């Protein structure tokens, strides 16, 4: 008989974008709504979070937006850029939360230049960071890799093979720094799954729920499903599903939930009726899943026969890789089989009564808007 209730060790999302004011005030409370207890916060803000004091200030600001009853803990990351020195890495590793005494900055995120949202200050070569990586290895900070290389006509690289072309960098970094914990973020291909499996225990891999569902056809022409790296083929999706179904301990949830205002996702909305603007503007990359995250994961894993791996995927695998404590005593997330409808959008309070244009800039459309989810968080 199909399960009607599931208890989970408290879920962790090891890759999430919560943005800055005013958008962050809408997004941060959605972490708890989606069932997450620990959230690993990405640094691609404007400007990027590139040093310890910026990171601590950002985390303080985000924590002030958490509902008082929430058990959510935030872990910060630093944006890899030339200003990051070995001394700053040492400072980052020493920061503790003033109340809990827990680690506050978990790692450093590398964005190759120009491949995604706010990556203009991203890196062009890994070699210049050898001393930084060596210090991270000593201090136990994690290196989080956005695993794509920029498009390049000479090398025939496009969004479709940008991840496969990146994997050589993963292997080189792992060979050079075998004790450095490295996470290949939001893997989308069978090649990436294979590459991570071939590496040693210090290399992990996050997989988003949307990449467990989408393929190319789902984002070509549908902005709400467009994200970087783009979803690939049926075979690639099968490889992602298979590795989650196998329970491989180094593969875990990183939602890459990436909210963008509706106006930035839909060129026609952004143009506000101006044809020229509509023709020239692009579609922001990012899929928004935070408010529905754990019910969505349960729904997807059940759809491909992996519900028994839900706890490993959303909690225990990442807790073990990141050396986070497992839930204390009876602290659990409980899911019940109960139908709920995914809201069609989420809008900042101050903009709910505004005209369409102002609202489009303060409104986010979630993944699977309007669809039914068979699982609901009850505590
Ligand atoms: N995934 C995305 O498509 N977008 C992310 C950036 C990122 O992680 O690539 C964002 O911040 O919007």
From TrEMBL:
GO terms for cellular component: cytoplasm. The lineage of its organism: Eukaryota, Fungi, Dikarya, Basidiomycota, Ustilaginomycotina. PROSITE patterns: DIHYDROOROTASE_1, DIHYDROOROTASE_2. InterPro entries: DHOdimr (IPR004721), Dihydroorotase_CS (IPR002195), Metal_Hydrolase (IPR032466). Keywords: Hydrolase, Metal-binding, Pyrimidine biosynthesis, Zinc. This is Dihydroorotase. The keyword Amino-acid biosynthesis does not apply. The keyword Hydrolase applies. SUPFAM superfamilies: Metallo-dependent hydrolases. NCBIfam families: pyrC_dimer. It comes from Acaromyces ingoldii. One of its GO terms (biological process) is 'de novo' pyrimidine nucleobase biosynthetic process. Gene3D superfamilies: Metal-dependent hydrolases (3.20.20.140). GO terms for molecular function: dihydroorotase activity; metal ion binding. It comes from the Eukaryota.
């Amino acid at each position: 008989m199909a399960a009607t209730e599931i208890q989970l060790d408290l879920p962790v999302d090891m890759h999430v974008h919560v943005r800055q004011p005013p958008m962050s005030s809408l997004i941060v409370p959605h972490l708890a709504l989606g069932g997450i207890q620990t959230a690993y916060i990405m640094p691609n803000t404007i400007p990027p979070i590139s040093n310890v004091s910026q990171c601590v200030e950002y985390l303080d600001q985000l924590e002030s937006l958490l509902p008082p009853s929430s058990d959510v803990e935030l872990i910060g990351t630093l944006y890899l850029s030339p200003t990051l020195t070995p001394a700053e890495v040492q400072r980052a590793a020493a920061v503790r939360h003033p109340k809990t005494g827990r680690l506050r900055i978990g790692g450093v995120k590398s964005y190759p230049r120009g491949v995604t949202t706010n990556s203009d200050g991203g890196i062009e070569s890994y070699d210049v960071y050898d001393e930084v990586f060596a210090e991270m290895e000593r201090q136990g900070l994690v290196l989080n890799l956005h695993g794509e290389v920029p498009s390049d006509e000479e090398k025939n690289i496009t969004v479709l093979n940008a991840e496969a072309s990146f994997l050589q960098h993963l292997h080189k970094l792992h060979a050079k720094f075998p004790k450095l914990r490295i996470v290949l973020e939001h893997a989308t291909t069978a090649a990436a799954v294979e590459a991570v499996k071939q590496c040693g225990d210090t290399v992990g891999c996050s997989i988003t729920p949307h990449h467990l569902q989408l393929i190319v056809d789902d984002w070509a022409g549908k902005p709400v499903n467009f994200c970087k790296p783009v979803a690939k083929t049926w075979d690639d999706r099968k490889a992602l599903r298979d590795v989650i179904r196998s329970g491989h301990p180094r593969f875990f949830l990183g939602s890459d939930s990436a909210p963008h205002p509706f106006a930035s996702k839909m060129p026609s909305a952004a143009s506000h009726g101006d044809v020229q603007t509509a023709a020239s503007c692009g579609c922001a990359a990012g899929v928004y899943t935070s408010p529905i995250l754990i019910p969505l994961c349960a729904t997807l894993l059940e759809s491909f026969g992996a519900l028994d791996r839900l706890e490993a995927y959303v909690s225990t695998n990442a807790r073990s890789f990141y050396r986070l404590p497992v839930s204390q005593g009876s602290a659990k997330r409980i899911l019940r089989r109960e139908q709920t409808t995914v809201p069609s959008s989420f809008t900042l309070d101050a903009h709910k009564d505004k005209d369409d244009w102002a609202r489009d800039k303060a409104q986010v459309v979630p993944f699977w808007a309007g669809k039914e989810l068979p699982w609901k968080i009850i505590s």
